[in-house]
Automatic annotation (TrEMBL):
Belongs to the ROK (NagC/XylR) family. InterPro entries: ATPase_NBD, HTH_MarR-typ, ROK, WH-like_DNA-bd_sf, WH_DNA-bd_sf. Gene3D superfamilies: 3.30.420.40, Winged helix-like DNA-binding domain superfamily/Winged helix DNA-binding domain. PANTHER family: BIFUNCTIONAL UDP-N-ACETYLGLUCOSAMINE 2-EPIMERASE_N-ACETYLMANNOSAMINE KINASE, ROK (REPRESSOR, ORF, KINASE) FAMILY. Residues 21-68 form the HTH marR-type domain. Pfam families: MarR_2 (PF12802), ROK (PF00480). It comes from Phytohabitans kaempferiae. This is ROK family protein. SUPFAM superfamilies: Actin-like ATPase domain, Winged helix' DNA-binding domain.
Length: 406
């Protein structure tokens, strides 16, 4: 039996070239066949054949002629993708989000539903997640679109099979989420995947955010926990078993507060949303743990805008802890930008200055190796958007959908 690398057959080469053309149009549309040939090195006849294939699949469409060019006007190409949609979902401690986008990135739906993840048993949670996924898929199908995939983001350790090995914020351990969802959705024709929410948020930023295309980028979640989605040289860093990015459980203070993971002084225990609420609004948990964080975060913002000294000082301390954590990332992987998401976004005006200053002090490289910390410009639910982006990235990579029915 032959082992080692095998030569690519014609189908492999064609799939690769189809992906090259599709990616070029996504980045440079509107563009002509001649533009594609010049930029990719493929000959014009090959490009014409590939474009014809992509038009037949309804992944590209022609959009008129370009004037003001040397020679004859050229027929221009843009993404089509109207028959297709990708669905992403985000599981958070206090809500579920579902997003659907088409191939061009146009948002088709965006839903946010209350969800008491910290109080819901895993079995019931699966049913709730599956019901929302099914509704989203039905809505998309009613628009005459084929679902390319459903990807669910979870704040925890997710293995290659889509099992959630540990999600301390949700109280989950060894939940076979992907397999359970496939059963609950009755073996759908589309792909079902589960991934870490920080990874998916990083994909969303890398595809749609203000720093889209940045080769070295980190996204820090700001939900119940703090996770890091790390993009290095344009590729998501996953590690040996997919458990990378757990920055929230770096111990920054050995004498610090207890973390939900059972350790003390973790970044999450010092700068997570629950730590912020406990520090600024200690009365909020008088009647029990907070399960809906939005009202409390809104109150923290109101107090900060009034220049309440205790609130501003507390947020500066949070910023310093975040800057400390980011400095470790800067020293290890030297990102160009670290994007703060979730509940950190509305708090960014009071967090970022202290975070950036702490990064500058603790990073080894001059000027923090060029790293800067910014707030995400994406709407809440970045992990859901990234879940949809995951399926679209698979198309970009050459895993093309079958020809749509006529």
């Amino acid at each position: 039996m032959q082992s080692g690398p095998q030569p690519a057959d014609f189908a492999d080469v064609r799939a690769t070239n189809l992906a090259v053309v599709l990616r070029h149009v996504r980045t440079h549309a509107p563009c002509s066949r001649a533009d594609i040939a010049a930029a990719t090195g493929l000959n014009k006849a090959t490009v014409s054949s590939l474009v014809a294939d992509l038009i037949e699949r309804r992944l590209l469409r022609e959009t008129g002629l370009a004037e003001h060019r040397i020679g004859r006007p050229a027929t221009m190409l843009v993404l089509d993708g109207q028959p297709y949609a990708a669905i992403g979902m985000e599981v958070s401690a206090d809500h579920l989000t579902a997003v659907a986008v088409d191939l061009a990135g146009e948002q088709l739906l965006s839903w946010r539903r209350a969800f008491t993840g910290t109080e819901t048993a895993a079995g019931k949670a699966v049913s709730t997640i599956a019901a929302l996924a099914s509704r989203a898929a039905s809505r998309v199908a009613a628009q005459g679109r084929q679902v390319l995939g459903v990807t669910v983001g979870v704040p925890g350790l997710v293995d290659a099979d889509g099992a959630v090995r540990l999600a301390t914020g949700l109280g989950w351990r060894d939940v076979e989420l992907r397999a359970d969802l496939v059963r609950a959705l009755r073996d759908p024709k589309y792909d079902v995947a589960v991934d870490n929410d920080a990874n998916l948020s990083a994909l969303a930023e890398h595809r749609y955010g203000a720093f889209a295309g940045t080769a070295n980028l980190v996204y820090l979640t700001g939900e119940l926990g703090i996770g890091a989605g790390v993009v290095v040289d344009g590729r998501l860093l996953r590690g040996g078993r997919g458990f990378s990015g757990e920055i929230g459980h770096l111990q920054l203070d050995p004498g610090g507060p207890l973390c939900p993971c059972g350790r003390v002084g973790c970044l999450e225990a010092l700068a997570g949303v629950r730590a912020i609420i406990q520090r600024v609004l200690p009365e909020a948990e008088a009647d029990g743990p907070v399960t809906d964080f939005a009202p409390e975060i809104d109150e923290v913002v109101r107090r900060a805008r009034r220049d309440d000294a205790a609130t501003v000082d507390a947020l500066a301390a949070v910023g310093r802890h975040l800057g400390h954590g980011v400095s470790i990332l800067a020293n290890l992987v030297n990102p160009d930008v670290v994007v703060l998401g979730g509940n950190f976004v509305p708090l960014a005006p009071w967090i970022l200055p202290a975070a950036q200053a702490e990064l500058a002090v603790r990073a080894v490289a001059p000027d923090a190796g060029g790293c800067r910390i910014v707030a995400s410009g994406l709407a809440q639910g970045a992990a859901a958007t990234g879940g949809a982006a995951r399926a679209l990235a698979a198309v970009d990579a050459g895993h093309l959908p079958p020809f749509p029915a006529v």
